């Protein structure tokens, strides 16, 4: 990348709130129904109907606000954002403008081991529009209004990210957070979590921001990174060839890996915002907040600190294990059930288990190895029934079958040999067969020791107790 330029990025994330019914009507929000079977008179904006605010959506917005340590507005207002679009039958979208429900907060991201705090300007409630379906009918556009009125939380960041990598880290962290809080299912294919990326470049050291372009509706982490990097290059090219970047809305085409202009950017006053006369202001009192606070789950940041303090985990393991609530719960259950050292449990969960889950493209909630069965395996490592190496073999079996670790160890005869007589016999044999190496060791080549350990282990099919082998070898080689 050209080093004379620096990038400024701000993200607007739309998270669909996981309420059962819509934000202003009783219609279902379930995804995938037959077109237009879940749009009621309120969602269609028919004359004579009135919207009624869904308290659950408010509750979820407040939960979010608390999680990012934001100011929760005691008084917030819904506004009409007026524009014409085929999938917006009312001719306006109910949103919030001047007085959003969630004020200034922040989210900490980690990029290459460095933590950075990203400011969040605001988060407001609004309704989603319907969908235009191009391509379903020859020469026609279909309109599906099932999504109309689905609750969204729009989360606006400060322009404080300076690379596509940081933007992806922010988007991932936000994705984890809303799922962790249980306020959004995070399903990006279904559009439950998507973002608009605002990108500008400026000469290094310049104070004022450059002109930004906004890339609309990106629904994958991979595309966010690609779209932003592409846009940065495009803007630099425009400026370096003597042109100016225009403020506009662009669309990312993932097939061609390019962004293209959609429309020139509209200003807030183009939308003729005004307070929606059909809806009362939202009043949030201390009682309501206290009630939510009491039900708030332990937040990721606090959980991570607790994992570091109580389980003596390093930063990396603590970060991975608290990346989702289900993973954190799984780990804590394994610690409890196995009674083993937390560090060992953490290494197994973040190591072998997560690697296997990744390979199989599975979530922890669908793990073929339950926490009981993993705990059963770890118990046998810590009581020296099997070595760490054999444990990996048992883990593979746990993954493939439904047997317990004890059953596998028994059936395959994998118990560790601690019988010193048996180990001694093998050691004597190995020493007798490798006199050259014995000479080398005795003349000071300590490295050869590893060779002996390897030979003994091989001879005993990995089942010898490694501690015992080490001790006896040392004595014999003296
Ligand atoms: P709008 O609502 O019209 O899109 P906002 O002022 O609310 O505009 O900003 C939207 C997003 O654009 C915010 O996330 C903000 O951080 C980001 N942003 C604003 N100015 C710039 C800029 N010059 N470069 C990059 N991002 C910007
Ligand atoms: Mg915008």
Automatic annotation (TrEMBL):
A molecular function GO annotation: asparaginyl-tRNA synthase (glutamine-hydrolyzing) activity
BP term (GO), one: translation
Catalytic function, reaction form: L-aspartyl-tRNA(Asn) + L-glutamine + ATP + H2O = L-asparaginyl-tRNA(Asn) + L-glutamate + ADP + phosphate + 2 H(+); L-glutamyl-tRNA(Gln) + L-glutamine + ATP + H2O = L-glutaminyl-tRNA(Gln) + L-glutamate + ADP + phosphate + H(+)
A Pfam family that the UniProt record links to this protein: GatB_Yqey
EC number(s) on file: 6.3.5.-
Keywords, alphabetical: ATP-binding, Ligase, Nucleotide-binding, Protein biosynthesis, Transferase
Record-linked SMART domains: GatB_Yqey (SM00845)
Highest taxon of source: Bacteria
Asn/Gln amidotransferase domain: residues covered: 329-477
Family to which this protein belongs: Belongs to the GatB/GatE family. GatB subfamily.
Quaternary structure and partners: Heterotrimer of A, B and C subunits.
Function: Allows the formation of correctly charged Asn-tRNA(Asn) or Gln-tRNA(Gln) through the transamidation of misacylated Asp-tRNA(Asn) or Glu-tRNA(Gln) in organisms which lack either or both of asparaginyl-tRNA or glutaminyl-tRNA synthetases. The reaction takes place in the presence of glutamine and ATP through an activated phospho-Asp-tRNA(Asn) or phospho-Glu-tRNA(Gln).
Protein name as it appears in the record: Aspartyl/glutamyl-tRNA(Asn/Gln) amidotransferase subunit B
């Amino acid at each position: 990348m050209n080093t004379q330029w620096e990038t400024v990025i701000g993200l607007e994330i739309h998270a669909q709130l996981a309420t059962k019914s819509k934000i202003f009507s009783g219609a279902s929000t379930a995804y995938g129904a037959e077109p237009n079977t879940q749009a009621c008179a309120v969602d269609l904006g028919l004359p004579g109907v009135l919207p009624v605010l869904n308290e659950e959506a408010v509750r979820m917005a407040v939960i979010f606000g608390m999680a990012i340590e934001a100011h929760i507005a005691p008084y917030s207002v819904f506004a009409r954002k007026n524009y014409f679009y085929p999938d917006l039958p009312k001719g306006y979208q109910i949103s919030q403008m001047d007085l959003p429900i969630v004020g200034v907060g922040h989210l900490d991201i980690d990029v290459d081991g460095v933590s950075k705090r990203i400011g969040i300007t605001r988060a407001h409630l609004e309704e989603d529009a319907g969908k235009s379906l191009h391509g379903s009918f020859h020469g026609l556009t279909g309109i599906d209004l099932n999504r109309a009125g689905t609750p969204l939380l729009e989360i606006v960041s400060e322009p404080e990210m300076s690379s596509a990598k940081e933007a992806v880290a922010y988007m991932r962290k936000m994705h984890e957070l809303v799922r962790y809080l249980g306020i959004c299912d995070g399903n990006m294919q279904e559009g439950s979590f998507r973002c608009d990326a605002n990108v500008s470049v400026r000469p290094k050291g310049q104070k004022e921001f450059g002109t930004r372009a906004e890339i609309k509706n990106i629904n994958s982490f991979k595309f966010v990174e690609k779209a932003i990097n592409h846009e940065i290059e495009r803007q630099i090219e425009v400026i370096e060839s003597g042109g100016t970047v225009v403020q506009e809305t662009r669309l990312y085409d993932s097939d061609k890996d390019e962004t293209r202009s959609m429309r020139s950017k509209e200003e807030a006053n183009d939308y003729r915002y005004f307070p929606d006369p059909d809806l009362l202001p939202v009043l949030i009192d201390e009682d309501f907040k206290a009630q939510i606070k009491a039900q708030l789950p332990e937040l990721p940041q606090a959980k991570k600190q607790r994992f570091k303090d109580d389980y003596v985990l390093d930063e990396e393991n603590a970060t991975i294990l608290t990346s989702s609530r289900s993973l954190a719960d799984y780990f804590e259950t394994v610690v409890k059930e196995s009674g083993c050292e937390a560090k060992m449990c953490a290494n197994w969960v973040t190591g072998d288990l997560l690697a296997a889950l990744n390979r199989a493209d599975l979530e922890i909630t669908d793990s073929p190895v339950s926490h009981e069965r993993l705990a059963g395996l770890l118990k046998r490592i810590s009581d020296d029934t099997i070595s760490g190496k054999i444990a990996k073999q048992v883990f593979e079996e746990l993954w493939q079958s439904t047997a317990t670790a004890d059953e596998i160890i028994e059936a395959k005869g994998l118990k560790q040999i601690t019988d010193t007589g048996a180990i001694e016999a093998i050691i004597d044999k190995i020493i007798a067969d490798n006199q050259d190496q014995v000479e080398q060791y005795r003349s000071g080549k300590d490295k050869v020791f590893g060779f002996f350990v390897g030979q003994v282990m091989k001879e005993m099919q990995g089942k010898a107790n490694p501690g015992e082998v080490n001790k006896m070898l040392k004595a014999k080689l003296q």
